[in-house]
Each structure stands twice: as structure tokens, then as C-alpha cells.
Amino acid sequence: MEEDAVRYDSRLNTCVVLNGRGFVGRSLVSRLLRLGTWTVRVADSAPTLNLDESDSVLVDALSSGRASYHCVDVRDKPQIVKVTEGSYVVFYMGADDLRSHDYFYCYKVLVQGTRNVISACRESGVRKLIYNSTADVVFDGSEPIRDGDESLRRPLKFPSMLTDFKAQAEALIKFANNRDGLLTCALRSSIVFGPGDTEFVPFLVNLAKSGYAKFKIGNGENMSDFTYSDNVAHAHICAAEALDTHMESVAGKEFFITNLKPVKFWDFVSHIVEGLGYPRPSTKLPVRLVSPVLSLLKWTQEKEGTGNYYDTAHQFALLASSTRTFNCNAAKKHLGYTPVVSLEDGIASTVQWFSRDLEKSDDTAIQSKADQLLGCGKVADILLWRNEKNTFVSFVVLNLLYYWFFSSGSTFTSSAAQLLFILLVALYGLAFVPSKIFGFLQVKKIPPWRFEISESAVRDLSRDIVVVWNHGVQSLNTLSRGGDWIKFFKIAGSLYLLKLIVSRSLATFIFTAMSFSFTAFFIYEQYELELYHIARIFIECLAVVKEVVLKNLPLPDGSSKPMFM
């Protein structure tokens, strides 16, 4: 009898965390082990347990026997039965990093996997099953959710197949309650973030790297609820305890879990991207412009069956442009849940964790295309405003020269002669100016060697002139024999363009080119990534339109006669 009692007590403290190496699963395992009252079986699909520096608590527990690792595929029921035997509680954390374009695989993991977990728990005599669901199961983006509670109904159609599968899994968990003594409940957390995040924050980082994080979708005033990963883990432990103390109020129910602090969605995003060293979102884009483009790209991706970027981007656009806040009174009342980490502290921890993995210096060291186009030299530094003082001085000098030669009313020859005369007088007068004026104003003299040209410079210049001359003669010989028609058309087009410029207004052309050089290259460098991705999206849209047009073209009639015999 005493041995049976001891065995029963040890079973009460034994739990299984399915997908225990996932994002939220890691937080739950760490929190369970820190409590010191649980024996934790960590189950995941990876064949081996890959530990890092953040797993110090798990390492100690593995060495002391308070934790163990098991390779489990939820698609294989016998594996689940084996790991759940002798346990009292099972925390089913769902699956991370699913390939959303492989719908059959997602269905097998999310829906059939949940059936297997439920069946295995009933067969193993597990008492409590807590499912990590998501608030997405009541959200389709068609209407805002303000202070929504558990009475919200699921939408008839979900924006993504993954969310549909998760809703089906949650329904299975709820339906399995109180069958063969198994008590179940589901926790719907809203936009989970934290160290080790594999979905939301990495997507923000990718947006920031690509330049898209500078844009806001919508007016930027929509409110959202976020949940720190440690708070989600804490809520699961609260639910496990509440299934004993408040069984009638908790069993078979679902509960919303948040940080209890709704904030503007774009304020939260700004804190993350700014903390990681990227500019905060500032430019607003209308939802009516973004949604059709993302829907078209998502449809193209589904047709091709490649990747899940645009599926995630479409889901992000819905979250980013809609108000979505939830009421957690039921979780506070029946589960005893309150956040253990504030939203501000959670953001700080998340930024600190992701900052370690980001190599921002490598990103900034990459030369821009504008810099490469301008030769990566002094001209590039001036036109790209590397040194604002030098650029401003260069701009003013060029404008003065433009006025002197083109707007003063004098001919080009007379303007050049007058400018040369002024320079000579200035240099001559500078020789008589004392090195100090009024005893403190220092005047820098130009040394005579500044006006000297070395023999090597003259030889190099002469050599360059000879090379250019010989190259020009060879090009003329080639063109005269008709050997390079591509070069011929290039030269002919350039000469014709030069003729048009000179015949119209050379002054207007020079002024336009000068203004363009000091603005266009700088603007292009600032928005280089955005322009690149916009161009890529435009090309992909054209490809889709082309494909649709070609498919709808009438097929040639086999009976039609050829036009030429």
C-alpha cells in the first residue's frame, strides 16, 4: 500500500511537454523545472536534444534525473503512448515552423496529431491535457475585436489554412473533455513574443532588413494585445492547477491569455525594430492598396506551391491593420492568471536576445548600388552626402559656376576669361596678405609646389591620352568596316541625343542634371531596398497577369488553313 501511494504521488508530479523544444515549449519547461516540484518529460520531433547556453536549467535537471528527453512524432500514436505512460499532466504546445504550403503535412501534424494525442492520453490514463491554442481562431480580419471574450464565435472562413487546422484541433480538445476521465482545456494566447521567437519577431526583423518596416499599414491607430512567452507558460501551469481546484469552471473551456495591456500595434513594432537598430515605421500605406497585392502574391504562391512568405505577410497585414483586443477576466477568475512579466520588460528581454544574433555591422558595411555606380570614390561621397559640409560647398560652387557661365548674359569664352582673370588677381593679392590679420586671424598661404606638375603625372597623362586616341582610332576602323553594329548604334544614339540637348537648351539640361545628381542618388540609396522589392513585386504581378492572359487566349483551330502555302 505504501509503495502504491509513493508511486501515485510521483505520478502527480510527472508531466509531459509535447513540442517541448519549440518557442513556448522551452519557456514552459524552464518554468516547470524552476518550480522544483515537477518531473518533466520533454518530447519533441528532433532525434537529439541540442542544448545551448539558455538551457542551463534543463541541463541541471537532466543530470539530476528531474527531466528526460524523448523523440516523439505526434503523427505516430504509439510514440505518444510510450512517453505519456505514468504521467498525470500533458501540455500539448502544438507545432512550430510548419510548411504552410504543404497542407497535407500540416493537417497530419495539427489535426490528426491532436487526435493521436487525445487518444494516447486516454489510453495512458492521463488526467489533464492542456492545449496551447491561439487567439487567431476567432479572427478573420473582417471586423475589429474590442475586448473580446470567450463568447466570440469562430469565423466561417479563416484567412489561412493553418489557422483553420488549429481551430479544428482546439475543437477536438474541447470535445474530448471528461471522456475516460480526461480533463481538457485550451489557452488562446494573442501574438506571442519573447526570446527564441520563431515567427512574429523574426518576421519583423526580416521586414526591417528588407526596408519594409519603414511602412505602416493603415492609419497606425489600431490596438492589439500581445503576450510574453513566459506569461503563456505561467498560464499553462495555472490551468493545470485549476483543473483540480476549479474543475467545473475550467474543464472543457477555452481562455484568452494576454499581457493585460493593449497597445497600439505599430507602437509595439516600433519598440522592437528601434531596439534592434532599425528605423521606426513612419510612412503610412492604405490597407486597400496593400491587401490586394498581398492576396495576389499569396494566390500565386499557392499555385506554385513554394514558400510561405506571402502567406505570413498576408496574416501580418491583417494583424497590423485591425484592432484586436481580448478580455482575460475568465482566465483571471478561474485560472488565477496574472502576468508575471510586464510588457515593457518582455520587450526589453526580447530585444536583448535578438540583438545578440543580429550582425548589424555587416549590414551597414555592404556598399549600396548607388555607391558602386558612382565609383565608391570622392564623387560618390559628395553626391551621397557622406560629409554634409563638403557636399554643400560643392553644390554652392557648382551653382555659382552655372550662373557665371549660363545666366550672366556673357558668352562662354568671355565668362571663362573673366573667371581666369579673377583667379589670377586673387592669387596675386594673396601673396601680399600677411600670415596673421589683427594678430589672431590666420591666413593660409598656398605653397608654390601646389602649382607644379610632376614629370610622372605628365607622363601618365600623356600615356592616357595616347591610349584613348588609339582606342578611338581602332573603334573608327571597326565601325568603318561594319564589324560592330551594337557599338555603332550606341555612338549614333549618343551623338543624336547630344545634338538634341545642344539644339534645345544646354543650360537647362546642365541645371537639370546637376539637381538630379545631388538628389536622386541620395534618395535612391535611402530607399534602395524598398525600390528593389517594389520592383520585384511589380514584376511578379506582371508575370501573374501574363500567365492569366496566356491561359485565356483561344487555342489555334486545327482545321484552320495556313495563310501561306
Automatic annotation (TrEMBL):
Keywords recorded for this protein, A-Z = Endoplasmic reticulum, Membrane, Oxidoreductase, Transmembrane, Transmembrane helix
For the keyword Mitochondrion, the answer is no
Question: Residues of the signal sequence?
Answer: none
Q: Where are the transmembrane segments?
A: 391-407, 419-441, 506-524
The cellular component terms of Gene Ontology attached to this UniProt record, alphabetical and capped at eight, are: endoplasmic reticulum membrane
Answer whether the UniProt record assigns the keyword Nucleotide-binding to this protein.
no
The Reticulon domain extends over 379-565
Put simply, this protein is called: Reticulon-like protein
Tell me one Pfam family matched here.
3Beta_HSD
Family per record: Belongs to the 3-beta-HSD family.
Which PANTHER family is this protein grouped with?
A: BIFUNCTIONAL POLYMYXIN RESISTANCE PROTEIN ARNA, SHORT CHAIN DEHYDROGENASE_REDUCTASE FAMILY 42E, MEMBER 2
Q: Where located?
A: Endoplasmic reticulum membrane
Q: Which biological processes are named by the entry's GO terms?
A: steroid biosynthetic process
MF GO annotations: oxidoreductase activity, acting on the CH-OH group of donors, NAD or NADP as acceptor
- What is the membrane topology here? Multi-pass membrane protein
